[in-house]
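User: I'm writing a short report section on ligand binding and want a predicted complex to refer to. Could you take this sequence and adenosine-5'-triphosphate and write out the structure as tokens? A short remark afterwards would be nice.
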Amino acid sequence: MAPETDLMAKIVSLCKRRGFVFQSSEIYGGLNSCYDYGPLGVELKRNVKDAWWNSMVTGREDVVGLDSAILQHPAVWKASGHLDTFSDPLIDCKQCKSRFRADHLQEGAYGEVRDGDDGRPRCPKCDGELTDARQFNLMFKTFMGPVEDAANTVYMRPETAQGIFTNFVNVANSARMKPPFGIAQMGKSFRNEITPGNFVFRTREFEQMEMEYFVPPDESEKWFEYWVEERFEWYVRNGVRRSKLRQRPHAQDELAHYSTGCIDVEYEFPFGWSELEGIANRTDFDLKQHTEHSGKDLSFFDEVEKSRYVPHVIEPAAGCDRTAMTFLVDAYDEEERHNEKTGKTETRTVLRFHPRIAPITVAVFPLVKKEGMPDRARAIVQELAGAGLRTFYDQKGAIGRRYRRQDEVGTPYCLTVDGQTLEDGTVTLRDRDSMEQQRVAGAEVAGFVQAKMSDWRRE
Ligand code: ATP
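Assistant: Sure. The structure tokens for the complex follow:
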């Protein structure tokens, strides 16, 4: 196995074994590209969303939140362009029936493509004949009400952004916001992707985290640059190695006709550099489209300047699942360590999550299952949970193995109640990264851990 395939295989296996991510409907053979998040995965995703919301909404005066419906009036998708142009070029192999995205095929994403005697490309899997490219709309359709006909067709939203544009006036008026200001939303989106894959990187049902930032037209360039930097640094602040991230400006021919700029934040995954998030300058396209299609004026009247204008929009659009996967891939580490007791070299698997992102912050262990240690440990669990820390209690197995189990799921701190705890109230706190242990007064543990969390830096 190539090292990079090997790494993804190890991560997928760890995710299943430890309860981060399961194949959806696994007992029925699974449903292609659909995944379920287990007990640790759901905490990881919640932390991703909290980190995003805290930095985009809670910690700012100029951004407010929204939670719009997944099902929207079909006219929304006509106005946004999704009904007419949200499609991928699709090519089928007539022989093995494999399906490819024409652009990905050309880029060699499915392997080397040979030209046949007629000069047309052949299937990279079986060398069979390929069809011409056809446009395939990526929106999932369903029907509203009991009658399944065209008049009742509705679409599962392919992005969260349009619900923000259609609510622009509602939000600006009710929250008394004036540009520059943003509306943020996170939630499920659905795309009937032709070639989903790479675990949860590209799926057909996924969660997005998007923000539309409305600005006076002459300020759009300034805000575009601001949001590119802000979003790039967000990944670094949450523990992703800077050396694994880059900004990729879109070439002119990649840009939508209305867009004046787009920069992707990319991560170097085991399968290559790939998009994590796109930051786009969408100009006044969306608000103008919805004004034209709905007949409702979506311009903004500036009371101070006494002028009316259609705001321009800067959009940082990220994916929650892709971010969670990035945190997992970036955190994964294997360390060779010499075990003094056995004299052997052992491999320690450790997820080096930022403590804010780790599913469990403090694991609490009684050294042994007697002498009142379990009761004391459980009381500490309650205290730490009361201080807002995510905790986990474990009394099973040798202490070294308990540490290793927590290393493997990225728990930054392990707290052990031992004989000395019963005498003087101190506990042992072990650091995941350095494996160093120190004694801390029981009453000070929550504050001590919180201080360590905010000082944490990736080595
Ligand atoms: P791609 O080029 O990878 O298909 P995109 O440019 O179409 O993505 P956007 O429409 O800009 O993506 O969506 C914003 C973000 O939503 C992406 O950067 C990604 O993180 C996430 N996203 C988009 N499609 C998927 C998908 N099928 N599965 C998981 N996440 C996705």
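A remark for your report: Residues 159, 191, 193, 202-203, 206, 208, 275-278, 317-319, 321-322 surround adenosine-5'-triphosphate (CB under 6 Å). The mean pLDDT is 94.
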